Amino acid sequence: MLAPIELRETHGATEAFADRLVALINDGSLALMISIGHRTGLFDALAELGEVSSTELALATALEPRYVREWLGAMVVGRVVEHDGKAGTYALPDAHAAALCRKSGAQLAVLTQYLSALARVEDQVVECFRRGGGVPDRDDSRFHEITAEDSEQSVVPELESSILPLVPGLIDRMRLGIEVLELGCGRGVVLLSLAERFPRSRFHGVDSSAEAIAWARTQARERGLRNVSFEQRDAGQLGAEHYARYDLIATFQSLHEQRDPAAVLAMIADSLAPGGVYLMQHSASSGQHAGDVGLPLAPLLYTLSCLRCSSTWGRAQTEAMLAAAGFGSVTVSQLEHDRQDDFYVCRRSADELW
């Protein structure tokens, strides 16, 4: 008599999981359309215009009416945009605009862009599952564009208010003038901002992407910044000219993108001047699958690790790697604006305080 009950329970669990998969497919499709809405400025236009027809929205954004209409359809059935069927108008609720529009300063729409960028290498990664190795000669231009936009909203606005104060006295030292290096700088949006804020300090960015470095150099030139430079080079292969040179070295979510993170950490320790500090932003992953179940954006974290970066590791492994690299003093903090990441302040010795 138990078998039918077990079958019914199994069938019910299967149905529930199938419903979850249907929701996942719909949400994945919606995420792609949200990315398009962000890139084309449709959300910003909707927030500014209020209730508008599909035609009016297309005119206001100079976009093709047919595509705008289909995009609005996805937004309506996805319950992102409200639709008045009688009036034929569409409106973006204020609560949704706060998470989607550029003027909000905390737009989650930026993160949806990672999905289409990562999907570009799906075929190649499938082959990696079969034969091992990594994805060679990938085009990172779109990825660097997204990470730069992400940094501009999650790192740059918080630099002076919460990130730099993690190192006591750092802001005062930067005002007087110090040497700063960022490894894995991408398009250099963090260094460009710092160079503008602290004209007496000197900033140097290193990244392996030629496209990202070219973009950063162009921006520095257009902004008239003479205290910042950028170099295309593998972060793990700095030359002897960098030895014991920098008062501050920083990595913002880039250590896990390196081929050999442990070697990069050792090189960072060697590149710090006496009393120098290494400031690192790194995922707050526990390093254990079960421990990461409740971590915000954990599925995205593991997807990034699988399709792009090094394997995911946690705080304990990070601290062990730092100790092996020669850092005897490490403090870890989480900031109110970013519960997804940990921020590490690392010195070779606790005695090396400014």
Number of helices: 15
Helical fraction equals: 40-55%
Strand content: 15-25%
Shape: globular
CATH class of the largest domain, named Alpha Beta
- How many angstroms separate the termini? 75 Å
What do the pLDDT scores average to? Answer: 92
CATH topology of the largest domain: Rossmann fold
Task: Report the sheet with the most strands, covering strand number, pairing sense and barrel closure.
Answer: 7 strands, mixed
Fill in the keyword field for this structure.
354 residues, alpha/beta, Arc Repressor Mutant, subunit A, Rossmann fold, 2 domains, 7-stranded mixed beta sheet, two-stranded antiparallel ribbon, 15 helices
Describe this structure in words.
The protein is built from 15 helices and 9 strands. β4, α12 and β5 (228-232) form a beta-alpha-beta unit. It is globular. The protein has helices at 2-40, 42-49, 54-61, 65-77, 94-100, 109-119, 122-131, 141-154, 159-163, 170-176, 189-197, 210-222, 261-271, 298-307, 315-325; strands at residues 82-84, 89-91, 179-183, 202-207, 228-232, 246-252, 272-283, 329-335, 338-347.
Structure summary:
The protein has 354 residues and is an alpha/beta fold. Helices cover 50% and strands 16% of the residues.
